[in-house]
């Protein structure tokens, strides 16, 4: 090693064979040119303008629909509720409590147990009405977006479809209970429960049935329960009743509750017979109208139309459109319902030669009015549907 070499005679050390002195090249940070385009400094020069190498990208128009809208949380929904909405929420909870009370005191009466199923359906529909009213405070409920093209209003149809399935299964449950009690009386088998006036003494008022009538009336007038469902569940023989009770579900609850008020006035034998008959009638009505409601809501979810008149109503409108002056033929037509308050009609019409823009504009207006008046029951009515009509026209090329 150089350090171990002996000093020379003159007192100086012998230099080593290598020089390892550190040398600083630069103290500034190193800049990387990776990803940078060469020649960008000449973007606005005469060379770039002459050869058009660097061009500005075309300006994109702003999107018509937002990609998505924020869905409110439970806390945001609670803060947005008005005083009236809070009262409606509290009453829906009270309605649910009445339904639970009817179910737990229905021991000894099949008809009261069946009535509790109807009241449960009313209470669930009341809760859906409150949720719809609260979500209407937010923009995401009605405004369209890329993620939800029709807002969140179709969620109400889905909730109603779930309630209609509850009606169907409730009807099956009541049939099984009624059949079980009927089989217990056959073959000399003693029933597990004696069917007597166990809930209400003879001659007394059945306060449970009275509570069912009261809760249904308050929900019908206060919450306007089933108001949207009534648009697809029209029953002609109920049209003469008041508006709130022309709904089949309100009518069923009030009607069977009124009959239950008469049961304590009957003898034990008549009580048992009428109790089973009412249970069977409620089960049949729940199954019948639940199936009809489920079919109507399923058609909405599948983007089809089964509203006023069904296929016959649409066919009648198509014939009237073809009879319009200037219409040569209808090439394509699609009618479908989005939710309870919105339907859409997409038409492709071939017009006769010689129709100018003014004539086509008037034809478009007449067709929109015709569809709205015939299938939506016209404007200015509380139960009318809003129709959005898109019309595509082409000139007839045949001679």
TrEMBL record:
Q: Which GO cellular component terms are attached?
A: cytoplasmic vesicle; endoplasmic reticulum membrane; Golgi apparatus
Superkingdom, natural source: Eukaryota
Subcellular locations according to the entry? Endoplasmic reticulum membrane; Membrane
Q: Where are the transmembrane segments?
A: 89-106, 118-136, 157-175, 207-223, 244-266, 272-294
Keyword field contains Transmembrane helix: yes
Q: Where is this region: Disordered?
A: 1-20
Q: Keyword Transport, does the record have it?
A: yes
Q: Which UniProt keywords apply?
A: Endoplasmic reticulum, Ion transport, Membrane, Transmembrane, Transmembrane helix, Transport
Q: Tell me what topology the record assigns in the membrane.
A: Multi-pass membrane protein
Q: Which InterPro entries match?
A: Cation_efflux_TM, Cation_efflux_TMD_sf, Msc2-like
Q: Which GO terms describe its molecular function?
A: zinc ion transmembrane transporter activity
Domain Cation efflux protein transmembrane, first and last residues per copy: 97-298
Pfam families from the UniProt entry = Cation_efflux
The protein's matches in Gene3D superfamilies, at most eight in alphabetical order, are given as: Cation efflux protein transmembrane domain (1.20.1510.10)
What the protein does? Functions as a zinc transporter.
Give the record's family classification: Belongs to the cation diffusion facilitator (CDF) transporter (TC 2.A.4) family. SLC30A subfamily.
Q: What is this protein called?
A: Zinc transporter
């Amino acid at each position: 090693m150089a350090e171990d070499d002996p000093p020379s005679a003159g007192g100086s050390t012998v230099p080593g064979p290598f020089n390892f002195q550190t040398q600083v090249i630069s103290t500034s940070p190193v800049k990387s040119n990776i990803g940078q385009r060469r020649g960008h400094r000449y973007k606005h020069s005469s060379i770039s303008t002459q050869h058009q190498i660097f061009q500005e990208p075309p300006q994109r128009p702003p999107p018509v629909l937002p990609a998505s809208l924020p869905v409110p949380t439970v806390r945001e929904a609670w803060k947005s509720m008005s005083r009236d909405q809070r009262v409606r929420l509290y009453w829906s909870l009270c309605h649910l409590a009445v339904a639970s009370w009817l179910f737990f005191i229905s021991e000894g009466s099949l008809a009261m147990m069946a009535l509790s199923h109807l009241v449960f359906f009313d209470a669930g529909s009341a809760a859906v009405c409150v949720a719809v009213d609260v979500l209407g405070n937010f923009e995401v409920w009605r405004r369209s977006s890329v993620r939800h093209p029709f807002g969140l209003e179709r969620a109400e149809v889905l909730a109603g479809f779930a309630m209609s399935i509850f009606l169907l299964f409730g009807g099956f449950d009541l049939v099984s209970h009624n059949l079980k009690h009927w089989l217990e009386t056959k073959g000399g088998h003693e029933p597990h429960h004696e069917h007597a006036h166990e809930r209400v003494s003879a001659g007394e008022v059945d306060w449970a049935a009275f509570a069912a009538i009261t809760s249904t009336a308050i929900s019908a007038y206060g919450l306007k329960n089933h108001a949207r469902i009534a648009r697809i569940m029209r029953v002609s023989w109920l049209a003469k009743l008041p508006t709130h009770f022309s709904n089949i579900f309100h009518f069923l609850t009030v009607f069977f509750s009124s009959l239950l008020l008469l049961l304590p006035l009957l003898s034990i034998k008549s009580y048992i017979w009428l109790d089973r008959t009412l249970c069977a009638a409620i089960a049949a009505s729940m199954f019948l109208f639940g199936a009809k409601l489920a079919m109507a809501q399923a058609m909405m979810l599948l983007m089809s139309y089964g509203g006023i008149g069904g296929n016959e109503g649409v066919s009648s409108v198509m014939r009237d459109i073809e009879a319009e002056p200037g219409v040569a033929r209808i090439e394509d037509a699609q009618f479908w319902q989005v939710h309870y308050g919105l339907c859409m009609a997409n038409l492709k019409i071939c017009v006769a030669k010689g129709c100018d823009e003014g004539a086509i504009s008037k034809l478009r207006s007449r067709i929109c009015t015709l569809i709205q008046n015939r299938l939506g029951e016209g404007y200015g009515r509380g139960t009318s549907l809003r129709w959005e009509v898109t019309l595509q026209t082409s000139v007839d090329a045949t001679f």
